[in-house]
Design brief:
rod-shaped; 7 helices; mainly alpha
Length: 224
């Protein structure tokens, strides 16, 4: 059985393996070599690679003592963290190109692939919420603009029916264009300097919406 007996408590489990890597890093007793692609591997492959790396750094009594201390520290860590997990374990299929992108990000930032996926999804949800809030703000702003126009007309003692058709169309044309500019500004502020496909899609959809409204109300689009 040899040295492998000291690793019997170490399972092919990402959570336990990642904890052991951090434990070794904190103790500064030795340096793990040959694990450059560590976070892109499966849990089983990680365990095998980590075991080899530890055995290449320690042997005999040193290896036995270190692994016993690590096992005791892991049990203590587990006792302190006995509480309902906020994580859910589920298996699912993803496009191979997407998975390759996740592995590239995980390797670049030296984080587990599941952490990379979690962060990417969280940021995507946050962006979706921001866009939803921006759309509600935009709709409220448009409503206020229309209400403000009606109030201005009342202050002037004018009624909509008294306005000439061209005058009304001109005002409507300007307000539609101002709303269009507002929508573009919201998208720019939400997406920031990001030049990805999502930002381009949102900008394209807004331009199409503006053109469609102009066609519906028979209004010439401005600067479009």
């Amino acid at each position: 059985m040899g040295d492998e007996q000291y690793f019997s408590w170490l399972e092919a489990n990402d959570r336990q393996i990642n904890w052991l890597v951090k434990y070794i890093d904190r103790r500064k007793q030795f340096y793990l070599s040959g694990i450059d692609d560590f976070y892109t591997l499966s849990a089983k492959a990680k365990r095998a690679l980590l075991s080899r790396s530890i055995k290449s750094a320690l042997s005999g009594d040193s290896l036995e003592l270190f692994m016993k201390k690590a096992k005791a520290a892991w049990k203590q860590y587990e006792r302190r963290n006995i509480k309902p997990s906020r994580f859910v374990s589920r298996s699912m299929e993803v496009d191979k190109r997407v998975y390759d992108d996740v592995l590239t990000i995980a390797k670049k930032y030296r984080i587990p692939a599941n952490v990379a996926i979690n962060e990417l999804l969280r940021k995507s949800v946050d962006l979706e919420k921001s866009i939803g809030n921006a759309e509600r703000t935009s709709a409220l702003s448009a409503k206020k603009a229309i209400s403000s126009r009606k109030n201005r007309m009342k202050l002037l003692g004018l009624d909509e029916k008294q306005q000439s058709l061209e005058h009304i169309k001109s005002k409507l044309q300007q307000e539609m264009y101002e709303r269009h500019l507002l929508e573009l500004d919201i998208i720019e502020s939400v997406c920031g300097v990001d030049s990805g496909t999502e930002k381009s899609t949102l900008l394209s959809q807004e331009k199409d919406r503006y053109k469609a409204d102009c066609v519906e109300y028979k209004i010439a689009p401005l600067n479009c």
